[in-house]
């Protein structure tokens, strides 16, 4: 069990070192949280995009359906693409990880199918 320690008895250089370690840890946590929020936002955008894909899109233009693919989120730059299967899509969630979404009753199911670099 840890004992209580009076901070007035700790040497000043040791307190400064402890302070800098805490600041570094807080910065790391803040950066990790910001990255997590970015991934969450990207995933939410993908969910909205998936909601617009339906069975009625299949076969409207032959074996493939035209779609606009987003290249970057903040500026919303899109390029034309083709969707050959409206029942299964692959989503890039960042840092080299992908999620394969498969249409199930009532929505989309998911599982991780790709790994990092």
From TrEMBL:
Annotated GO MF terms: unfolded protein binding
GO CC aspect terms: cytoplasm; prefoldin complex
CDD domains, sorted: Prefoldin_5
Sections of the chain in a coiled coil: none
One Pfam family linked to the record: Prefoldin
Source domain of life: Eukaryota
Family: Belongs to the prefoldin subunit alpha family.
Record-linked PANTHER family: PREFOLDIN SUBUNIT 5
Protein's name according to its UniProt entry: Prefoldin
Organism expressing this protein natively: Blyttiomyces helicus
């Amino acid at each position: 069990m840890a004992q209580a320690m009076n901070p007035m008895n700790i040497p000043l250089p040791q307190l400064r070192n402890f302070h800098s370690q805490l600041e570094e840890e807080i910065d790391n946590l803040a950066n990790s949280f910001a990255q997590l929020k970015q991934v969450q936002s990207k995933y939410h955008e993908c969910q909205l995009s998936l909601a617009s894909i339906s069975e009625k899109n299949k076969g409207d233009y032959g074996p493939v359906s035209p779609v606009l693919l987003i290249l970057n989120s903040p500026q919303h730059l899109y390029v034309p693409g083709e969707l050959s299967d409206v029942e299964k899509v692959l989503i890039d969630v960042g840092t080299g990880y992908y999620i394969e979404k498969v249409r199930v009753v009532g929505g989309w199911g998911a599982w991780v199918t790709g790994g990092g670099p």
